[in-house]
Specification:
5-stranded parallel sheet
Length: 174
């Protein structure tokens, strides 16, 4: 059986996590490997419905994503997660649980994320209408030693996807 692993995208809302994760998923699928994408918005709608955006709610959501990624990984699937996952301790907890783990920091300046915000979430957060919004009124803890760093304000999504795949290859996962 082929060994699975998890690619864990983390970064601010609007940084490009979902866009790049989808490109990586498509390329892995085209190579004939089993792959599943766990998108943060989709998981919140189904698996984590009803959880709020307090630290406890966010931690529970990220633990649930980690649990599903762990199950997929141990069954030979490449799990890709694309969720803000703002707290370092929970990401580290998932790294320990999953084992075969590639942390991808989608490093994009807040100003650029705000420019890309088609849903108007940053504007609502800045006006106080949206509480506990990561990067504005709630913290984001950047990874200390991610395996891959994407600079999505300067790279195309395709270039970022190639960096992720190259990083996975360098680690011996692909």
């Amino acid at each position: 059986m082929t060994l699975g692993f998890t690619i864990w995208f983390t970064g601010l809302s609007g940084s490009g996590k979902s866009t790049v994760a989808e490109l990586v998923r498509e390329r892995i699928l085209a190579a004939g490997r089993p792959v599943e994408l766990l998108d943060g918005d989709e998981v919140r709608t189904h698996l984590s419905r009803g959880l709020g955006f307090s630290k406890e709610g966010r931690d529970a959501n990220i633990r649930r994503i980690g649990s599903v990624a762990h199950i997929l990984t141990r069954n030979g699937v490449i799990a890709i997660t694309a969720a803000i996952s703002p707290y370092r301790s929970i990401r580290d907890e998932n790294r320990k649980l999953i084992g075969r783990f590639v942390e991808v920091f989608v490093d994009c300046p807040l100003e650029e994320c705000e420019k890309r915000d088609v849903k108007g979430l940053y504007q609502k957060a800045r006006s106080g209408e949206l509480k506990q919004f990561t990067g504005i009124s709630d913290p984001y803890e950047a990874p200390l030693r991610p395996e891959v760093v994407l600079l999505t304000a300067r790279e195309t999504p395709e270039e970022s996807a190639e960096k992720v795949l190259a990083g996975c290859k360098a680690l011996g996962y692909l």
